[in-house]
Design goal:
With 143 residues, this protein is mainly α. Helices cover 41% and strands 10% of the residues. The protein has a two-stranded antiparallel ribbon. Strand 2 and strand 3 (67-70) form a beta hairpin. The chain is globular, with a radius of gyration of 16 Å.
Length: 143
Amino acid sequence: MTPPKPSALAKPTLDTPYHIDYDWWPTSGEDLRVVLLRQVPPEFHDMVTAEPADRQIDYIDPRTGRISRVDPLRFALKVAAENPAFINREISVIDCVLRVLLMNDNRPITPRELAALTGYDGQQILRLLSGARVYYGIRPFIT
């Protein structure tokens, strides 16, 4: 079920949870696969592009031991996310936010929590996410 679109009247705060709204992508003019591929370290690019997109690979979560079937791109993202350097100050704020959401399976997260995980200022993250432009489909999560 798709969450409702955020109200124009609700002003987001540092405690407003955000998520990737995948319904935004078809109308955005951006290609989700291309954006995700940009988040994958270069050493994975050949593997991702050589494999059929519909191929399924077993991924074992190192924290839980849970096995899931994922496509090559998701596999590369999950393996990359295991590296502490996946989230770093060398990449843009919005790419950091996207990576945190990807590595946490799109669990809604607040700018305050994002600040603690990325090292970027929470107010800066809030301004970026609550502005007129939608980046990577990242929008407030309305329950």
